[in-house]
Design a protein that fits this description.
Distance between the termini: 83 Å
Radius of gyration: 29 Å
Order of helices and strands: HHEEEEEEEEEHE
Number of strands: 10
Strand content: 25-35%
Helix content: 10-25%
Structural class: alpha+beta
Strand order of the largest sheet: 1-4-3-2-10-5
Oligomer: single chain
C-alpha cells in the first residue's frame, strides 16, 4: 500500500504544468565572438588588409597555389590603376579606381634581398626586360618602381620569397597587368 501526501501531489502537479508552459525560455547569454587575428605586419597603412577584404568580397575565400591568379569577371571601366603588394601573404592586388580588378600570388625578395616597403610609382616599363645586376636574367613585362632596379615582372613562383628584391608574378598575369598600368601608377608595398 502506498501513501501519498497531499502536498506531494500538488508539487508534482505544479512541476508537470510548468513543463507545459507557453512562456518562451529566456534567451541564451550573449557570448562575445573572438576578434579575427590581425596579421603581424611590420609596416602597413591598411592597404594590404583592405585589399584582402576586397578580394574576399569579389572572389570569396579562395585557396591559391603558387602561380594562381584571378581577374574580376567584369573589369572596372574607369579609374586610375593602383597596385597593392602584400609581402606578408605573398599577394599582389590591382585596382582600377576604387574597385579591385585582380589578384595574384607572388614571390618577393628573399632574406638579405628583401623587397622594400613603402609608396612608389612606376617609372619604367618594358615588355622584354632584363636584369642589369643578375646575369641579364629575363624580366618579362617588367614594371620598375625603384631606382635600384627593383620591379615587378613575370617569373618563377616557388611559393615563398625567393627573388633578389623584385616581385615575381605569373607571366600571364604580368602580361595583362602591363596593359592596365602606366608610368606614374601608384605602387604600395606593405608587409
Amino acid at each position: 500500500m502506498r501513501l501519498i501526501r497531499k502536498g506531494m501531489v500538488v508539487a508534482v502537479g505544479a512541476a508537470l504544468l510548468a513543463g507545459c508552459s507557453t512562456t518562451p525560455p529566456p534567451p541564451p547569454p550573449v557570448v562575445a565572438q573572438p576578434k579575427p587575428q590581425e596579421l603581424p605586419y611590420r609596416w602597413t597603412q591598411g592597404n594590404a588588409p583592405q585589399a584582402h577584404k576586397d578580394s574576399l568580397a569579389l572572389f570569396g575565400p579562395v585557396s591559391m597555389k603558387p602561380g594562381d591568379y584571378y581577374w574580376a569577371s567584369a573589369m572596372p571601366e574607369s579609374g586610375e590603376a593602383k597596385v597593392v603588394i602584400d609581402l606578408l601573404t605573398q599577394r599582389f592586388y590591382i585596382y582600377r579606381g576604387d574597385k579591385l580588378a585582380g589578384m595574384s600570388t607572388i614571390s618577393s625578395g628573399k632574406k638579405g634581398h628583401e623587397t622594400p616597403l613603402g609608396f612608389w610609382k612606376i617609372f619604367r616599363k618594358q615588355v622584354k626586360g632584363f636584369s642589369r645586376k643578375y646575369d641579364n636574367a629575363p624580366m618579362p613585362y617588367m614594371q620598375m618602381y625603384d631606382e635600384m632596379g627593383i620591379a615587378f615582372h613575370g617569373g618563377k613562383l616557388p611559393g615563398y620569397p625567393a627573388s633578389h628584391g623584385c616581385v615575381r608574378l605569373p607571366v600571364e598575369f604580368a602580361k595583362k597587368l602591363y596593359g592596365l598600368t602606366k608610368l606614374g601608377t601608384e605602387v604600395i608595398i606593405e608587409g
